[in-house]
Amino acid sequence: MWESRRSISAALARMAPTRIGEDICVPRTRIPEALERLRLIGEENDLSIAVFGHAGDGVLHPNILTNSRDPALMERTETAIAAIFQAALDLGGTLSGEHGIGMAKSRFMRGALPDETIALMKGIKREFDPKGTLNPGKIF
Predict the structure, then answer these.
(1) What is the dotted CATH code of the domain comprising 2-100?
(2) Domain locations in the chain?
(3) How would you write the pLDDT of the chain (140 residues) with one tens digit per residue?
(4) N or C: which end of the chain has fewer CB within 10 A?
(5) Shortest CA distance to 98 belongs to which of 60, 128, 65?
(6) Of 110, 97, 103, 115, nearest to 140 (Cα)?
(7) String of b and e for 1-39 (b: at least 16 CB within 10 Å)?
(8) Are the C-beta atoms of 92 and 27 separated by less than 8 Å?
């Protein structure tokens, strides 16, 4: 079983010129709904989305098989990514289960957290990094 799990990413990387792996988390009881939403997102955007993850904690890794050299395909891919994040939030989940927010997900933070929480997090960063030298150009 572990050998299969460890080989998923490599196998997916051989299926398309570009593989974009995302990381969302939903309540365990909502995993079936999340999988159905991900299937529909792939169908609506004419994309293959392979999903694997950690059923025990609700972490899902939707992997979009795409081609970064095809602008039209990448436009559909970006639409799918936004829909994936929205689906996670709609189902009571989070934008990330284990890989963090990073630059790619930062634009979705306002949908995930109240403005007050984001302001508090920015304040904490300012407190510890008043000159903005740690992680320059990043939100936190």
Answers:
(1) 3.30.70.2740
(2) 2-100
(3) 778 878 888 888 889 999 999 999 999 999 999 999 999 999 999 999 999 998 899 999 999 999 999 999 999 999 999 999 999 999 999 998 888 787 778 889 988 999 999 999 999 999 999 998 988 877 77
(4) N
(5) 60
(6) 103
(7) eeeeeeeeeeebeeebeebbebbbbbeeebbeebeebbe
(8) yes
